[in-house]
Design brief:
Blueprint (H helix, E strand, L loop, with lengths): L1 E5 L3 H14 L4 E5 L2 H10 L4 E5 L1 E2 L2 E2 H10 L5 E6 L4 H9 L4 E4 L4 H18 L7 E6 L3 H14 L3 E6 L2 H9 L7 E5 L7 H11 L4 E5 L4 H9 L4 E4 L4 H32 L3
Helix pairs in contact: 1-5, 2-3
């Protein structure tokens, strides 16, 4: 196993190295002292497992994890943390970590086994693109700021690409290499309306779309759903907190629909009339 351990505490690095060399005899050991050091080493070398401390002098282990998953680096990730909570566990695992261990009790005694298990899980169930790209089309600077700040804190595994009108959103999608997993569209946009943009997106792309609006309107809701929107949310108090779950649900529904369509085509090909 070739391991990169990202940790800025020399004492923890030495303690962990000595413990792991006893548990994994063929271990090839390398270290990085912070976020930028780790990113540089990941760009120049291949590793089997990335062992991340949560808190680093120049940032957070989550910054390294998001870089790894956004750039489809082929590596299993295990996180260790001296201080964390349930929300931290969820954020790291949703962002694509294979395991998470608090630095408590005899965690070093089980670390080698957890690293090997994480490597096996990654090899068997590698999922590049765990971080979802969300095309967020919104004209209000206040709403953009509110949503981006909330997602940075609570849902960093959702990468928001902000465009402020429909033409800009379509131009971004048309550029080579650009791809979105979900679109989040405000109903009121300058120029092309949210509903008009939704109609274009449904015609050109296989892209699950969620419509949000500051004003409840039964006719607009009905039209949005009939045009193919996966969901429709009113900007009521606390709506931003609901968005991550709504976005993930839309992505899962789209993946399930694509799987059903592929299975139906397989059956048609296997049983030609």
């Amino acid at each position: 196993m070739k391991l990169l351990y990202v940790e800025d505490n020399p004492f923890d690095r030495d303690l962990t190295r000595r413990a792991l060399l006893k548990q994994i005899p063929d271990l090839k050991w390398d270290t990085a002292g912070g976020v930028q050091d780790a990113i540089g080493k990941l760009a120049s070398q291949d590793y089997d497992v990335l062992l991340l401390d949560m808190w680093l002098q120049d940032g957070c282990g989550l910054d390294v994890l998001l870089h790894v998953r956004r750039h489809n680096v082929d590596v299993a990730v295990v996180v260790v943390a001296g201080a964390g909570d349930e929300a931290s566990v969820v954020r790291f695992l949703k962002a694509g970590a294979q395991d998470y261990l608090p630095k408590r009790g005899g965690y070093l005694e089980q670390l080698g086994d957890r690293l090997m298990r994480a490597q096996v899980r990654w090899r068997e169930n590698a999922r590049p693109g765990t971080v979802l790209t969300v095309l967020y089309v919104e004209a209000s600077p206040d709403d953009i700021d509110l949503t981006c700040r909330y997602f940075e804190r609570r849902a960093p595994y959702l990468d928001l690409v902000v465009q402020q009108d429909g033409d800009a959103a379509l131009a971004w999608l048309a550029e080579a290499g650009h791809h979105a997993d979900v679109a989040l569209l405000d109903l009121r946009l300058p120029g092309m309306s949210g509903l008009e943009l939704l109609e274009v997106l449904q015609a050109r792309y296989t892209l699950p779309c969620i419509v949000i609006t500051g004003r409840g309107d039964e006719a607009a809701a009905a039209q949005a759903m009939s045009l193919g929107a996966v969901d429709y949310l009113i900007k009521e108090h606390g709506y931003v907190a609901a968005l991550p779950c709504v976005i993930e649900h839309a992505h899962v529904l789209a993946a399930y629909s694509a799987l059903r369509q592929a299975y139906a085509r397989l059956l048609d090909n296997a049983n030609p009339s």
